[in-house]
């Protein structure tokens, strides 16, 4: 446009009544796919974050979106400060600042639950997904639209959801909604639906029929829409889509009135990484030309033949079964977020190493240190020299590619050896 807290703990605190059944103790909170707002730049970013972004002083960031000169940040937090001020500004679960200079804007939206996903509507409104029941006193169940300038809730997008919304993707007037729910707008949908924003209604003919989950109800953890808007890659805890075997990953043709399961398949995520996890896929992003995409995973275990705790590139074209083009292992530490910019594949989590095929919470042969954030070579998958470091915490949850550089949202306060609380920006190289 895309965790060591146990999910059962998160859900007991956050999930609205009547939502999907409880998850296993070791599953993770949602991770938001990156929001693409600009064409891929010709170079990578520097390892020195700009010094003018604001600070979010508590909680964590789960979503970042760029709408013109406004950066919107969502998560579960309560306060922020300007870059060089200690004065606390109350901003609960949603805040915004100017991309040009970092100034916190007056946008105030009152939400009674966390924000997991953000997107821009065709008319410039801000679309919000998460796990809430009220927005500015108006009843909005996990999905809402607000005026970016005023923060007022719009009269549209009253579509009720009986669980949480974890991912949003927009193509024209079509809004794809992924999450952990059974019903949306009066239609039964297992964690993935398409809405017509012009008609303000659920698309009755679009149903991916995600099913056969491990232990819990089907859900979409993250998704990525191809740049031309014709293909949607969804990842989650399902094993079938419209009756066809698609373990944890499905590619849909979304050009027509139905959710057509393409014949693109991969068996790579058909194994269990760890019995505590019902699913371990966490983030996905397309390349700018739409010819390939990258998936990142958690899962604790690691090894040369395992898809766990790794980033994997897949070619998006061609029918039939696909093996990954390359796999880069962390050696047992989770990855949650990925952004593909062309010259680099940025991955974030709470990893210590990359290129760590043979490590298991240790540095194996060939491992390189990349604490919390890394850039991978798109062609080979090997770690690039870029190594700004960050304090690891639970991990990076959100990237956003902007005209000024790469925005990073997490739960810690050190990025590039500097104080940058939960949000930071790596600018593009000048040369």
Features:
431 residues; mainly beta; Methylamine Dehydrogenase, Chain H; 4-stranded mixed beta sheet; 4-stranded antiparallel beta sheet; 1 helix; 41 strands; 2% helix; globular; disordered N terminus
Tell me what you see in this structure.
The structure is a single chain. The chain has 431 residues and is mainly beta. It has a single domain (7-427), classed as Methylamine Dehydrogenase, Chain H, CATH 2.130.10. The chain is 2% helix and 38% strand. The chain is built from 1 helix and 41 strands. A hairpin with a 5-residue loop joins strand 20 (220-225) and strand 21 (231-236). The longest helix has 8 residues, at 7-14. It is globular. Residues 1-27 and 35-42 have low confidence and may be disordered.
Quickly describe the structure.
With 431 residues, the chain is mainly beta. It is 2% helix and 38% strand.
Mean pLDDT: 91
What's the tally of helices?
1
Which runs of at least 5 residues are low in confidence (pLDDT < 50)?
A: 1-27, 35-42
What's the overall geometry?
A: globular
Structural class computed from helices and strand pairing: mainly beta
Number of strands: 41
The CATH architecture assignment turns out to be 7 Propeller
**Termini distance?**
27 Å
Share in helix: under 10%
- How much of the sequence is in beta strands? 35-45%
Major β-sheet strand ordering: 1-37-38-41
CATH superfamily: YVTN repeat-like/Quinoprotein amine dehydrogenase
Rg over alpha carbons: 19 Å
Main sheet specs: 4 strands, mixed
């Amino acid at each position: 446009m895309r965790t060591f807290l146990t999910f059962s703990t998160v859900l007991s605190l956050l999930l609205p009544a009547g939502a999907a059944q409880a998850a296993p103790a070791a599953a993770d909170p949602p991770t938001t796919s990156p929001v693409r707002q600009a064409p891929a730049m010709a170079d990578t970013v520097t390892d020195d974050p700009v010094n003018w972004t604001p600070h979010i002083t508590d909680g964590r960031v789960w979503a970042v979106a760029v709408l013109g000169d406004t950066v919107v940040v969502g998560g579960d937090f309560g306060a922020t400060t300007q870059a060089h001020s200690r004065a606390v500004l109350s901003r609960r679960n949603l805040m915004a600042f100017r991309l040009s200079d970092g100034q916190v804007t007056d946008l105030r939206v009152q939400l009674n639950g966390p924000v997991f996903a953000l997107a821009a509507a065709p008319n410039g409104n801000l679309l919000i997904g998460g796990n809430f029941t009220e927005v500015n006193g108006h009843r909005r169940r996990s999905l809402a639209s607000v005026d970016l300038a005023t923060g007022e809730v719009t009269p549209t997008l009253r579509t009720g959801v009986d669980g949480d919304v974890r991912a949003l993707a927009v193509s024209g007037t079509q809004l794809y909604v992924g999450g952990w729910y059974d019903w949306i707008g009066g239609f039964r949908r297992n964690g993935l639906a398409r809405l017509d924003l012009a008609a303000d209604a659920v698309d009755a003919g679009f149903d991916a029929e995600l099913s056969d989950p491990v232990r819990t109800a089907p859900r979409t953890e993250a998704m990525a829409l191809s740049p031309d808007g014709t293909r949607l890659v969804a990842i989650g805890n399902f094993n079938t889509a419209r009756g066809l075997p698609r373990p944890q990953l499905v590619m849909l043709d979304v050009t027509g009135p139905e959710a057509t399961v393409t014949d693109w398949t991969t068996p790579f995520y058909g194994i269990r990484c760890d019995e505590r996890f019902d699913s371990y896929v966490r983030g996905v992003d397309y390349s700018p030309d739409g010819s390939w995409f990258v998936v990142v995973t958690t899962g604790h275990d690691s090894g040369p033949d395992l898809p766990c705790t790794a980033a994997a590139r897949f070619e998006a074209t061609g029918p039939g079964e696909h093996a990954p083009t390359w796999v880069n292992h962390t050696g047992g530490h989770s990855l949650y977020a990925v952004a593909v910019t062309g010259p680099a594949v940025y991955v974030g989590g709470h990893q210590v190493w990359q290129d760590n095929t043979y490590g298991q919470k240790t540095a194996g042969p060939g491992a390189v240190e990349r604490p919390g954030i890394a850039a991978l070579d798109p062609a080979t998958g090997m770690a690039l020299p870029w190594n700004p470091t960050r304090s690891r915490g639970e991990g990076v949850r959100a990237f956003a590619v902007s005209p000024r550089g790469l925005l990073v949202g997490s739960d810690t306060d050190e990025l590039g050896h500097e104080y940058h609380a939960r949000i930071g920006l790596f600018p593009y190289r000048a040369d």
